[in-house]
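Issue 218. Parser rejects a valid record. Input:
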Amino acid sequence: MTPAAAPLDLTDPAVIADPYPAFAAARARAAVQWHEGLGMWLALGHPEVNAVLRDRRLGRIWSDKAPAERFESFNLIHRNAILEMEPPTHTRLRRLISAAFARGHVERLRPWVQELADSLVDELAERSAGRTPVDVLSGMSEELPVAVIAELLGVPEADRPLLRPWSNAIVKMYEYGRTTQIEDDAERAADAFVRYLRALAAERRQAPGEDLLTHLVTVRDAQGDRLTEDELVTTCILLLNAGHEATVNVSGNGLLALLEHPAELERLRADPGLLPTAIEELMRFDSPLQLFERTATEDVEVGGATVARGQKIAALLGSANRDPAVFADADTLDVGRADNPHISFGAGVHFCIGAPLARVELQASFGALLRRTTRLELGAPARRRPEFVIRGLQELPVVLTAS
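Output the parser choked on:
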């Protein structure tokens, strides 16, 4: 018998503001439930979400959005994206991308990332001077990841302000209850992004550098295979969209969590060695990505429910990360939490390829905030973005005092 519909309205402002009580209520009914409104199964428990992400019978199966002529560029960047592929195509593409990443790009950028984080915190502290609230989101959380991805790819500084507006417009297509305007804006942004990267890739072919884009242009595997033009463009867009959106939102959500739990903030100040553990806890406590869909290629049993071939099941990552069956005191922020199998980076073959870079960025930004200030306090209520799937803030006013 199909379980009753999950008591979740993902467009409800109260759920968007704080989904975790709704997750807990839903989990208490069943770890896997059918949601009539969404027309798909929802996995809420940690073991069940983990199974959804790892079971090869539950795949990412991309279907072009119709009409095709309206979404030409949006469809192109998803049709060729590693995130939308399954083996063996996924295996080939991930092997090529990993080979380009293996050139030491993350370690090459580590000192540069720390220097940038330090300078951004110093600028915020100077503007705040311990009295005036400043928006940490626009002043650091948004600026750092975009700058890092742009530096990684070798995007000229003059062009970098283009990237975040394009990304913001594209990722709004992943939400439920989209308007026609949102869809049109996403396609325009995708088209502009594709054309820009085609031109930049052409420049790298003529004048190679030491950036990741050059290495993506030139990489070949042992069989001589290489990325197609569309795969190259799509990979760069995915790195920006997935990479910087996640880092921006962990940074914003995580800092807000620390400000709302001042004892944990002071604990972290007193013991900077906890920083790597704290970053993992901040990702668990308020997940930047809340939902990830898969489609059954055959009948699959998950958590006692049968997902029929062709049906979709959504892994609710934020719910899994608060599952009390896996995490002691799951609703408690604990920057020293050692046993922390969170799945904010996913699991299985789609585990985030940019996870090492994200950790470098987050450790740099939170480390700079802790080392270069003596005071961090909320200056006004934070404003949250009105979307569920990608969970983040619009504004985070903070008062900072330089150390």
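Fixed in the parser; the record now loads. Residues 229-260 form the longest helix (32 residues).
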